[in-house]
Amino acid sequence: MTVFAGLDVHKKYFHATALEESGDILVQKNFPNSSEGYDSILAKTGRKVKVAFEATYAWEYVFEELEDRVEEIKLAHPKRTEAITKERIKTDVRASEALAKLLGRDYSRNHGNQP
Question: How many domains does the chain divide into?
Answer without folding.
Answer: 1
